[in-house]
Structures are given as C-alpha cells and as structure tokens.
Design goal:
The complex is a heterodimer of chains A (314) and B (299). Chain A has 314 residues and is mainly alpha-helical. Chain A has a domain of 216 residues: Orthogonal Bundle (MetI-like fold). Helices cover 69% and strands 0% of the residues of chain A. In chain A, helix 11 runs antiparallel to helix 13. Chain A starts with a helix and ends in a 17-residue tail after the last helix. Chain B is mainly alpha-helical and 299 residues long. Chain B folds into 2 domains: 56 residues, no CATH class; 217 residues, MetI-like (MetI-like fold), CATH 1.10.3720.10. Helix content of chain B is 76%, strand content 0%. Chain B contains 13 helices and no strands. Chain B is elongated. Classes of the chains: A mainly alpha (314), B mainly alpha (299). Chains A and B meet through helix 1, helix 6, helix 7, helix 11 and helix 13 of A and helix 1, helix 7, helix 8, helix 9 and helix 11 of B.
Chain lengths: 314, 299
C-alpha cells in the first residue's frame, strides 16, 4: 500500500505542519471576513452547500407536488412552468423528487461524515498513542484500505441488507480509515513534542493528554477530511441507489431517480439529467469547500494539491 | 493478505439471518431452509467454517457459487477479460488526458490556461461516473448513433468491436482519474520548476520544451507515478458501476449480481481477488518508482 500511503502521508504531513505552525487549527474569527474575500473557492463552495442544505431542510416548502404522487395523465412530460424539471414514467414531478432526494443525500452525507470522522478520530488517536494496540489497530485500518470503496460498501450492504441506516453504517466503515490514517500521522508527530512530555510528567492521565492536548491541535486536518468524505459519501450513496442496492425502492433518492429514468432516456432525458446535475453540483461544492479549507490550514499548498479520493468509486 | 482474508470472512459471515432463507424466498418452510443450510455447511459453528475456508483458500480453492453451482475461481476467470481491458483502457485515457493537462497548467501557472485546467479537473473529480456514462450513451449512442450503447464483444472474436464497446465506458471511468493525474502532475511540476537546477538549465540557453520535458519532467514524474496505484483501485471500484451502466459482463457486474443473489462465496472470492489486484498494482508502482528515482532502493 505504499503508493496510497505516500499520498496520504504527504497530505497528512502538509496538513500537520500547517496546523502546527499556526498553532490553532482554524483561522481566528477576527480575520474571517478578509479570509472569505481572499478565497473565491470558499465563497462559491460554501454558498453551494448552504443553498443545498436550505433546499433539503425546507424541501416541503419548495416542492410543488408530492414527490410520490403518481399521475398517469402526466406521464413523461417535458419541463414546463408547472413541472419545472418535467415528470417521470409514473407522472411524478421530478423537481419535487430531486428536492426530497437532496434531503436523503445531505442526511446520508452529513451522517457518514460525522460518524466516520468521530470514529476515525478515536481510532487514529488510540492507534497513534497506544504503544500496545496501536500497530495492530492500524494494520486493520490498512486492511480496510486495501479494497476499492464501493466494493467494500457493496459487500457490507449484501451482509446488512439495504436500509438507510445500513447504508450509513457501511459508508462510515468505508471512510473511517481516511480520517484514522491522518489522525494517526498527527498523533505520531505530536506525541514526541515537549509540551506533551511535560503534561505526562505532571501526571496527566492518557485520556486527558489525548483529549485536552492532542485533539485540539489535530482537529483541522480532520475537518478538511470530513468535507471530502461528505462529497464521497454522496456519490457512493447515489451509486448504491443507482445499482438498486441503496435505499428501499420508491424512496426518492438521486441515484434511484436516475436509475428509473434510464429506460426513458431517449424520449425523456430530463429524468436523468436533473438528478445527475444535482449530484454533480453538490459534490463540486463540497470539493471546493474542502480544497479551500485545506488551503486555509496550510497556505503553502494553495491550489497545489486537491482531494485525492472524492471520486465515484471509492 | 491474511488480515484482508479474515476481514472479508468476518464481514460476510457474522450476519444475523440465514442465507438459505434468502435463497429460497418467502414460501420456503423451516425444514427446507434447515436442509439447505446443512447442505451448504452453513450450520457449522463460525470458527470451524473460518478454518475450512482459510485452508481451502491456501490451496487456491475459493469455494462453489451458491447460485451457479460451479467453482468460484472459474466464474471469476470467465468474467475477467472485459474488466481487465476496461481498466487498462480507462487508465491509459486518464494518463493521456491528465498528464498533458497538468503540464500545460504548471507551465502556464496563474494564467487562464491554468485556471481552465483547474476547473476541468474539479469537474472531473465531481462528476459521477454513471451519470457521465449515461450522458455519453445519450449523445454518442442514441442521438448520433456512432457507438453501441451496451454489451460487449470478446477481443478474441473482433478486437475492433471490443474497442467500440469499451471506448465510452473507458472515458466515463477514466475522466475522473484524468482529473486526479492532472492535479498531481501540476503540483509536482510546479514544485520542480522552482528549483535551482531548472533555472540553471534555462540560463544556459536550453529551449523551454527541452527544459520541461527532459529535465523537469523526470523528477516531477516520480510522485505522479505513485497516483497510478490509487487509480487502479479507483478504476476497479468504478468498473462495478460502469459495467452496470453499459451492461458489460465483467467482474464488476458479477459483484452486483452476486450481492442481489446473496451469493456469498462469489462475493468473498471477488473481494479477495480485487484486494490482491490492488496489492499487485501497488507493487508494480513501487518497482516503477525505484526505476524512475535511483535514490529509492528496496532491499
């Protein structure tokens, strides 16, 4: 796994040194406006994400119809003022379905990003700090990294069954190693610092050292990674739903709308066009946001490297 | 590899619910299910099943498919050809697009060309490959009628037809990887272009293409090559979806079919095989790495 590690260590190292030289993980509020003005990516990415979140949360307000209401007289209608994005083969309104799909995608993305980050942080902290279980734990994490993400997700779904909660669990397991690896790197570097030694010498317990002294100095890279996981989780959930293995049939998720629209693509391309565009815009917004956050944490990397793995398959 | 194998077994075996029940459907009686579970050896305790599985594995026996009833290894081999060709073609496309894009961006740093390359790679990374695939089908398959929209022809029968079938899926799959290569090569080349030896090369009057291609590229390539290992992993994962979109009878499609059928021996074998391929790809990258950079030596 040297190749993958190589990139990861490079990323991690850059992020770590950035976080460490600044002393704080995130820029101070005082400079927030200036920072915003200097980072177009942050503005564009942040706006896209905010708009999508608002649309998702208030989907019932923006939706023009019931997303599940079938109307045989309105089958396969092209976009008009009543049906902003047209209708599907059952006469359901695509705009409303895409809106409710945003709810699912955002919920899955946010849940996976949170769960994977939290568990990844814990695994990384223990893996880096404990001299007894550390290497065994990280070996297991590397074991998980050996599979293409979607393949691991499929295997887990096969075992757990396709339900919303299981999709979240499966994807969290898939993305946990990303955070764990980065945290592991941070902890290994911080562990040898004088202030940690000082804290230990003063009799601070391991948990206290980890939570009070190491965690705050390693949050930056974890947050950046979290935004990339958000993006990856949206694509992977859509892929699973597209394959028919994500959420139960009938649920308006971006992937399943696409999958149902495939058969009618020649006559009614809008059914596949709009949910796909929604995935694309959401993922792009999150990637922009992640890239900008990374630039903020380590200005030396500005525009240089990007998210290595926020891709459909992984 | 043992860790990987154990992870796979644990994941697929520690499930509540019986495989027999899933296979036979809802009308099956409890006795039927029990009989099938016994026939498949699924009523044995988990540790015993694990030992049997591992010992067979060391002899290259991946078990028998619950659905086809034939050895898993044979099923896998029969589905290999399209996936291997698709992954190779996608990786080639990714390199062919990504590398020039990265070089152009780095050489014209902070120009509109650079911005264009960055935006292109952002699009590449964000676009879902199944959606790109569907749009390609719509454009080149259905509207323009240039290429077949689905299916596969074996390379042994008609290589040209194989290429026609694979070119769209390979583009759908390779585009995001191209974006990744573009980003990596741009970043690495930028780093190298700032070094003193490149300035010296310019100063002694060498032409710009010569400096970039002969001097800077060689060093910039070393970290870029390391991405190829990641790209193979991504391509294999992406193949699962792309093969479904384009109805290509490859290993990825088999994975999806097996998940629907809950054919666990096939899923286990497949996941194990993919992990092995990923490991091999990384080994290959390491060797290439040592070849490109004489400072790296593996003892």
């Amino acid at each position: 796994m040297i190749a993958r590690d190589e990139i990861e260590t490079k990323d991690a190292r850059a992020e770590i040194s950035g976080a460490l030289t600044r002393g704080v993980s995130m820029p101070r509020a005082r400079g927030a406006v200036r920072v915003l003005l200097n980072h177009h990516g942050l503005i564009v990415g942040g706006s896209i994400c905010t708009v999508l979140l608002v649309l998702a949360i208030f989907a019932p307000l923006f939706a023009t119809m019931d997303p599940k209401a079938i109307s045989m007289t309105d089958r396969l209608l092209a976009p008009t003022s009543t049906h902003l994005m047209g209708t599907d083969h059952l006469g359901r309104d695509i705009w409303s379905r895409v809106l409710y799909g945003a709810r699912i995608s955002m919920f899955v993305g946010l849940s996976v990003a949170t769960t994977a980050s939290l568990t990844g942080i814990i695994v990384g902290l223990v893996g880096g700090y404990s001299r007894r279980f550390g290497s065994t734990l990280m070996r297991l994490v590397d074991g998980l990294l050996a599979f293409p993400g979607i393949v691991l997700a499929l295997a887990l779904i096969a075992v757990l069954g396709s339900r919303l909660s299981n999709v979240i669990i499966a994807l969290s397991i898939v993305y946990l190693p990303r955070v764990a690896r980065i945290m592991h790197g941070v902890v290994l570097e911080l562990r040898e610092r004088e202030y940690i030694m000082a804290a230990t010498a003063m009799g601070a317990k391991t948990v206290r050292v980890l939570v009070r002294h190491i965690l705050p100095n390693s949050m930056g890279p974890a947050i950046v990674q979290g935004s990339f996981i958000f993006a990856s989780a949206i694509i992977t959930e859509a892929s699973l739903s597209f394959l028919g293995l994500g959420l139960p049939p009938g649920t308006p998720s971006w992937g399943s709308i696409l999958s149902e629209g495939r058969k009618y693509m020649l006559g009614a391309p809008w059914i596949t066009l709009f949910p796909g565009a929604a995935i694309f815009v959401a993922v792009m917004g999150l990637n922009l946001l992640g890239d900008s956050l990374r630039d903020l944490i380590d200005p030396r990397l500005r525009g240089a490297t990007g998210n290595a793995r926020a891709d459909g398959g992984n | 590899m043992l860790v990987v194998a154990s992870v796979i077994f644990l994941v697929t075996n520690l499930i509540p619910g019986s495989v027999g029940a899933v296979m036979l459907g809802q009308e099956a009686t409890a006795e039927d299910i029990k009989a099938l579970d016994h026939e498949l050896g699924l009523d044995q305790p988990v540790p015993k099943r694990f030992l049997t599985w591992i010992s067979r594995l060391t002899r290259g026996d991946l078990g028998v498919s619950l659905y086809h009833g034939e050895p898993v290894a044979r099923t896998l081999i029969s589905r290999m050809e399209p996936t291997v060709l698709l992954t190779l073609l996608a990786t080639s496309i990714a390199i062919a697009i990504g590398l020039p894009l990265g070089i152009i961006a780095a050489v014209n740093h902070r120009s509109s060309l650079d911005l264009g390359a960055l935006v292109t790679s952002l699009i590449g990374i964000s676009i879902p490959n199944f959606w790109l695939g569907l749009n390609l089908i719509l454009l080149f398959g259905l509207y323009l009628n240039w290429l077949p929209t689905a299916g596969y022809a074996s390379v042994r029968e008609d290589p040209l037809l194989t290429l026609q079938h694979l070119i769209m899926p390979a583009i759908a799959l390779g585009f995001s990887q191209a974006a990744l290569i573009a980003r990596m090569s741009r970043a690495n080349l930028l780093e190298v272009l700032r070094t003193d030896y490149v300035r010296t090369a310019h100063a002694k009057g060498l032409s710009a293409p010569r400096v970039i291609l002969k001097h800077a590229m060689r060093n910039a390539m070393v970290p870029t090559v390391s991405v190829i290992g990641v790209i193979v992993t991504l391509s294999l994962g992406g193949a699962v979806i792309t093969e479904t979109v384009f109805a290509i009878p490859g290993v990825g499609r088999l994975m999806v079919e097996s998940v629907f059928r809950r054919d666990f021996p096939v899923i286990q074998g497949l996941v194990l095989m993919l992990a092995a391929v990923v490991a091999l790809a990384n080994l290959f990258v390491d060797i290439l790495y040592a070849y490109l950079n004489p400072q790296i030596r593996y003892d």
